Amino acid sequence: MKLIGAEILVNCLKEQGVETVFGYPGGSILDIYDALYRDGSIRHVITAHEQGAAHAADGYARATGKVGVCIATSGPGATNLVTGIATAFMDSVPLVAITGNVGINFLGRDSFQEIDITGITMPITKHNFIVKDVNALADTVREAFRIANSGRKGPVLIDILKNVQIAEADYTPQTPQTPRRKPVPQSALTQIAAAIAACKRPLIMVGGGAVSSEASEEIFALSERLRAPVVCTLMGLGAFPASHPRFCGMMGMHGTETAAKLCLEADLLIAVGTRFSDRVALNRDKFAQNKTVIQIEIDDAEIDKNVTVTHSVLGDIKETLKTLLPMLAQRKDAAFEKAALAYKAAEQKKQKDNGLGHKILLAAAGHAPAECIVTTDVGQHQMWTAQLYPFEKPRTLCTSGGLGTMGYGFGAAIGAAFGTRKHILFVTGDGSFNMNMNELSTAVTHQLPITILLMNNHALGMVRQWQKLFYQSRFSQTVVNKKTDYVKFAESFGAVGLAIEKEADILPVLKKAFSIQAPVLVDCRISEDENVLPMIKPGQTYDTIITEWEET
Amino acid sequence: MKYTISALVSNKSGVLTRVSALFARRGYNIDSLSVCATEDATLSRMTIVLDGDEYILSQMMKQMDKLIDVKKIQHVESDAVFRELLLIKIRCDAARRTEIFELSQIFRAKIIDISHDTAILELTGKPVKLDGFINMVMPYGILESARTGVTAISRGSACIKDEADYKEKI
Question: What's the pLDDT tens digit per position in B1-14?
Fold first, then answer.
């Protein structure tokens, strides 16, 4: 049938099973918005700012495992997506970003709201397209979804010129192919199976790739088979149940002391879907010293990139583990597992009476509605959430790991709410919140069940902590002392505003907040001297972990 | 160390930008890059000379292979055929012509343009041969020169088309 480009796009989105998109209309994308309006079957969520739309599409994708879609107009609309696209790129989140652009007659003439968005997003997308011919549109959209959702996932941008949106072409519906997972042959794993059989102290290190590959079940089975303790990177949290005795917490710069000890003592490290980032490996040359490292990874370029490994296998994690598991015997030696349990018990016993922020997070974890999804911004509150919140299932945490995008969490919360219809706990800090607080209007418009825990220390806590540690407490621009009344702010947007000032407020306020199926902002007035510990300084080795703050 | 990489890439606008932008942002040092069409109209061939070590070679090939527009990629071994083309305009008055003709014959360079006081010479060969020739004509005065950058093809029946495609591996 003959359709115009804008209609072809809408039909292609429907082919891909897209139900919800996030975006913001504008001059060069009017025809696509008109086609969405006339079609009426795709829910479009208008955010306050295009950055919010990109983060919402990202949160939608992380929480559901489906491809997130965001739409923006040319020029500033497109450039406002950039931080969101980069966030998704660094964390390998499948995203399709659609932008309109000026017509071919105006292209390259610095026309109104013309920008080279494919040029701008080249280093932060898996691939991008500029569509100049309507006959190429349908296949380009299909290819974009395929690229975004296959292999190591990531964002893809499609820039569609105005003339393409209005030109007619033949459209034949197609059923998309489900991304295929290539089986991994046993022959690729014989050395790995032998290395595992020979080891004494195996440790499983789980990264975001495990979540992406939906490999939780297989990782659990691997841990059972090897009696191996499990540590997760920030991106891997949720891939292994936090309540399990063998779960030893997050690893890396702000990981647990137990994880650090195990990383030092293990003679075999099975790294599953992790790229050994500088926040995890810290000192990449010494990280894997004196141990055998096995890397299971879908991106060839990540193998031996940061840490040189002993054995590696290129492939889908779930498929690799499905082949590997029958090759492994049940381990009987439980010495390392017991050591892990002992370290963990000792670390828990040592836990001091922590500050108000910790107490609020622990109480929130205890009282949040079942199946709650957590999103965070970036900073101290993010690390506290990662350390303290018990993530039992994959896709229950949306956080910006690689790019570290302050302002990510609100958009992500909106996206996750639309994607899952579950209650969302959005943990933020007063620094991050101020970056995209405008999205409260979106949350209120749609009455989304988002509880916002605003860890308000009147400071940019994480940077301040670094200034304390590395810059002799010269708090340059980190003690912000905004005079904002966040309770009134929430109320003015039509949300509920609550505050926690002392320990006694925690339970009543949280219970009230969680009982409301609409946006609630809880202003948690915490001290600026609550720090994130443990900490390993950048570039240092795991034996230098700091667990107590030395006041200087 | 110098390494040479050959790649078959989509013959579309923007592909060269994708490849060169990748080098820039990953901090790889490129000595030369040559691109040309192939017998298959959908593909171009790139030959890249990299200055680096084994780690950078491996990373650069893997990162390039991830680009959707890079179809096949191959490290060109040192026994392959390497060629480069040089066009060089030198100062050459009537008194010097004989000398320059002789020199050209030794290097099998062609004289493709001559004026009262200049000559343009064309030479094809391995980059070291071109270096040697440039060295020899330097005293006459080089007015300008253009080199294409090296292009290479492996010996025997092995072809770049037969390389495994990364996207098929996963």
Answer: 999 999 999 999 89
Same domain, A380 and A511: yes
Q: Best interface-test mutation with B: which of A104, A117, A122, A317 has the largest number of B CBs within 10 A?
A: A122
Pairwise CA distance, residues A222 & A235, whole Å:
19
Structure tokens at B157: 């029946």
Residue A50 known to be catalytic:
yes
- What homologous superfamily is domain B2-76 in, according to CATH? ACT domain (3.30.70.260)
Please state the ipTM of this predicted complex: 0.90
Q: What is the pTM of this model?
A: 0.96
Alpha carbon distance A344, A322 (integer Å): 29
Lowest mean pLDDT among A14-18, A115-119, A434-438, A481-485: A481-485
In a domain, residue A474? The reply is yes
Query: Which CATH architecture group holds B81-147?
Result: 2-Layer Sandwich (3.30)
Which strand ranges, in their side-by-side order, compose the sheet holding A68-72?
Answer: A43-46, A20-23, A68-72, A95-101, A155-161, A127-131
Closest CA to B45 of B132, B136, B153: B153
The answer, yes or no, to whether the previous bond of A183 is cis (omega within 30 of 0) is no
* 8 A C-beta contact, residue A94 and residue A62: no
Q: Are residues A343 and A360 in the same domain?
A: no
Ordered DSSP codes for A190-238? HHHHHHHHH-SSEEEEE-HHHHHTT-HHHHHHHHHHHT--EEE-GGGTT
CATH number, residue A401: 3.40.50.970
Evaluated on CA atoms A45, A46, A49, A50, the torsion sign reads positive
The beta-carbon neighbor of A315 closest among B55, B68, B170 is: B170
Same domain as A499, residue A532:
yes
Q: Is A17 helix (H, G, I), strand (E, B) or coil?
A: coil
Distance in Å, alpha carbon of B127 to nearest chain A alpha carbon: 31
